[in-house]
Amino acid sequence: MMDPQIERKLIEIMRVIHESDKPIGARAIADELNNRGYDIGERAVRYHLRILDERGFTRKHGYAGRTLTELGESEMNDALIGDRFGFVISRIEEMAFRTTFNPETGDGVVPVNISYFDKDDFETVVDVVSYTAHAGYMISSKVKIIEENEEFIYLPPGKIGIATVCSVTFDGLLLKAGIPVEPSYGGILQIENRKPVRFLDLISYSGTSIDPIQIFMKRKPTSVLEVLEKGEGKILANVRQINYSAYEKVIETIKKAEKAGLGGCFPSGEIDESLFGAPVEIGKFGIAIVDGINGICALEETGIEIETNPVSTIMEYKTMSEI
Predict the structure, then answer these.
(1) Are residues 148 and 35 in the same domain?
(2) Which helix (H) or strand (E) holds 265?
């Protein structure tokens, strides 16, 4: 029986590899682990990687680094499930902290989702994502098209990628403004007459080991195309809770973001009151934010096969272009 501390380090290394968009090496893994509070050097990482190789959980790609095997993905999903509760929130908090975007100058990085699709679907992808973004059901109408020669993002052969701005960007903007934000729920929001009415389903971020948005995407419960065409249907959205004392500052921060082209926040709820049916704690108010991958959901509704990694990485906002 291996030391539990070693097992936890192995799982954390597997998480880092899983979250990478391309093969990742020992040095980069060590740097990321240090960012997450693990005091582990490159040599120690190499030792743990050899164990993972021997177990068949990782695959080496020459000097490029490692990816997880199918067995490794399965093991990571099954192992230490208790440790994974709260991990989704930790990921959101990490990406919010790494957000440096300044709405007044346009400089800095934002969290993005990365989606992959066949090259033959390129025109449809651009049309549908553009339609969704300009209708106000995504965070930004700026995206980045990722092709095979992209230096920092790995693409499967024959695929093109698209980076869309993630809703965690608002967590980052509020955090930089000195406002603590609590990620509460991911859910399905009913739209009627092009206005939000009620949440039909909610999953708490604190009570799951899987990103709620990924769960809903797999269930395919949205009808984003109907929202775009008829003003009636279901979209993905998130709920954040904030202390009542920050109410005015939140409104000010959201307005600054909107001037910079970042939208998707519905009107804030009242203090101590539920938000479109989503519970809100006493002394707090809620804000609902559209999810940045609603355009991707619309694409899936057309029958296009597309793979998405929500809250995938960070990207310089100025490198993104209007779609």
Answers:
(1) no
(2) none
